[in-house]
Design goal:
140 residues, alpha+beta, Alpha-Beta Plaits, six-stranded antiparallel beta sheet
Length: 140
């Protein structure tokens, strides 16, 4: 059995995004992987622009509901996401699921309620983590 997302469940302004950098400690020494383990499906997360980030001025940090940074949206996606946030786009973001190399969040821009994709309890081999997840926008 495997997860095969064939149908597009949502608008193009709603997407699942990878949160990378879980292996790095936060400046306050909190552990990102531990924080990810505390997050539950549907729990709010916050997107924070970091224009002073020394590695990428378009960086978008992801912070849990408890105020602890989980990591960053991938460099490939943060430019667009940051542009929408700077433009004042109404948005909502929630924790979707943990992964081995990245957390996954669900984000919706333009108002409305987030539509969560089905839980992937039947996954035997998570193809999204090895580059075969083109059918779903994992933000990688």
């Amino acid at each position: 059995m495997f997860y095969s997302p064939v149908q597009r469940l949502t608008s193009p302004r709603e997407m699942s995004l990878a949160v990378v950098g879980l292996g790095y400690p936060n400046a306050d020494r909190t552990n990102r992987r531990f924080e990810m383990a505390l997050c539950t499906r549907g729990e709010p997360v916050h997107l924070v622009l970091e224009p002073e980030n020394k590695f990428d001025e378009s960086a978008v940090a992801v912070v849990s509901a408890r105020g602890i940074q989980l990591g960053y949206i991938t460099a490939e996606r943060c430019g667009l996401i940051g542009t929408w946030i700077r433009a004042g786009e109404k948005h909502e973001a929630v924790f979707q699921e943990p992964g081995r190399t990245a957390a996954v969040i669900r984000v919706r821009f333009g108002g409305g309620r987030i539509t969560m994709p089905p839980e992937r309890a039947d996954v035997i081999w998570d193809r999204s983590e090895v580059g075969y997840g083109e059918a779903v926008d994992w933000g990688c």
